[in-house]
Amino acid sequence: MNEDFNANLVEKYFINPAIENGIRAYMEYKEHGEFERIHTFEMHVIKALTIIYGEKAILLPYKIDNEKAFKCNLLLYDLKEVDMQRFIKYMNAYDEFIRNVQSGMKATGIITEIEYILMKMMDLRSLKHPFTEEDFKEFDTIFNPLNGDLKNIKQVLVSDSGLLIKSWQDSKEKLTNTQIRLMAINPNLLNPSDYSKYGYDIKEVALHTEEEINRINNEILRAEYASTQKPLVPKRKKVNALTSGNIVVDCLLGLSILATIVLTVLLFITHLGGTL
What we know:
Blueprint: H1 2-8, H2 17-32, H3 40-53, H4 55-63, H5 67-73, H6 81-100, H7 108-126, H8 133-143, H9 148-157, H10 161-183, H11 192-197, H12 202-205, H13 210-228, H14 247-275
């Protein structure tokens, strides 16, 4: 009787303890800025899921206690069901590992598999909806943390964290390349050569908001227009040899010439009169 009673008291988790604890920690973090640090890894996994699928798709099924909806939402971008089940299985394995961890034990395989499936989810999502620059910054804090509890956890539980970082960098490069190919049909993007000519990388430009892309484009187009314009050389005004180009001076010069002519004529006449 007591055994049956105790069995009924077993805590029920949403999907499994790791996912339940991760969602709780994420919600506490969003509301209070704090959470139980023991669930740091699980919280960051849920954080990655909210970026990929949106908070509503991840949190609402938990709030209404609908496990089926949660699982279906993970398939939104054509993730295979087998990969979804593997994700759930490895999250549960992580929880069991943490509960029974002993000094020196590693969880390299478990964490690697979880992050590998997360990257696959990201890849599938990017084919339909590109990630923003801010999204990639958040992913960097998850897959390649430079400090904090998550970095410490990975250093302790992962045999070679460098492999995880390399895997993330490769995945990030693949994602950005995929998004560039998809964004090539975006009329807001210029040719790659146009960006490189002015010190920009189209891969980085494509991650900006539409407003920022337009600003960069306008900057480049203005520079291109300016480079095609020939400098205006002022034409020198032709000045008649008998003029100075100044009306007053020309008048004085004319009067001087006229006086000289009159004086010359008078002298000539006077000279003729004396001769006669």
